[in-house]
Amino acid sequence: MAQLFYDHLIVIEEITAVLDEHTLTKEERAELLRLIDQTLHHEILDTIFTHLPKERTYPKNTMKRFLPVFT
Amino acid sequence: MMPVQLHTSKLRLALERQARHTGRKLRKNHPHAVSFLEKRGIVPGKLREHAARIATTGALAGAMLLTQPIAQQVRSATSAIAQMTTEQLQQKLTSELVSVLPKEMSLLTPTQEQQIANIVQTLWGVRAVPELDGERLNRSYGFIGAEQHLPRFPGDSVDQHDGFQRSGITPGLGAWGYFAPSKQMLTQDLIEKEKWYVAVQTLYLPDWNTRFRYLRDWYKYRKVLVINPTNGKTVAAVVADAGPANWTGKHYGGSPEVMAYLGLNVGMQKGAVVLFFVDDANNEIPLGPVEYNFKLR
């Protein structure tokens, strides 16, 4: 699985441990984790963008400085 | 102590709702940032898949570096696709889909969906995705069955349609009503929409009733790509009707034109297809048969 730069800050093991207490098929487990991952990406990006200095957030210079880390 | 029974379907629905909610919140709070990412083909909720693609591309590039210049390799691969005939592209699509699709009809996994999206992007130059704007149908691979023509305006009749008149016309309206309020107001664009339409099972979406107004508008004329994996024939169509019912054993419906192009208007008039949304905000992909690579034309 590809690593993202904030993975070491997120403790997802607690969630996977709870899921693993139940009898899930491989596909069910993957699908649930994918949805959790999706929510995490949304929330983390929202938090990052919210805390970027305002004067740099929407003038395009911040886009140029920060967003390309994803590309 | 025995763990509490987990209702996976309920949990899945709740997680889907949460993912959609956070996606909408992100888009609302930071529209410019989301737009920046999407223009570069990055779906915010799929950062990990994107990272995996980059890693794969990097590894591939590294391997190519050892053999021959990258630019030359990329040029030759692109050039090979650009020079292929429609039939060759369809054959290649078929052979690549065979290795991805399940042997029996079943739901696709996220990995299979991503692989198919990559294949379609490479061969047709179309960004086709199972999920768009946080919306997805209950399935992206299923059986399609033949539908009749839809009435396009009050007083429309099958003999006013310019093809496949033997397929007939539905006695009632499509799920979104008439295409135009009168014959005079029927544009060429709307004619094409009726000609290349599909019916999808919006009625079975888990949130159809709770988000009806939004979903009704979102699905109306939503552009989709329909692929017959047995012959590689691919068609761009729009959603213009709802159905079919589950008891029919079919998951989508296709207009007479769609079914004929896909080669499914014979025998039982039913067949397996991949159906993805087309991410085409600028409306660059015309409706009808897809027969060349849109990026390389």
TrEMBL record, chain A:
Domain of life: Bacteria
Protein name per UniProt: Uncharacterized protein
Provenance organism: Candidatus Gottesmanbacteria bacterium GW2011_GWA1_48_13
From TrEMBL, chain B:
Name of the protein described by the UniProt record: Uncharacterized protein
Organism: Candidatus Gottesmanbacteria bacterium GW2011_GWA1_48_13
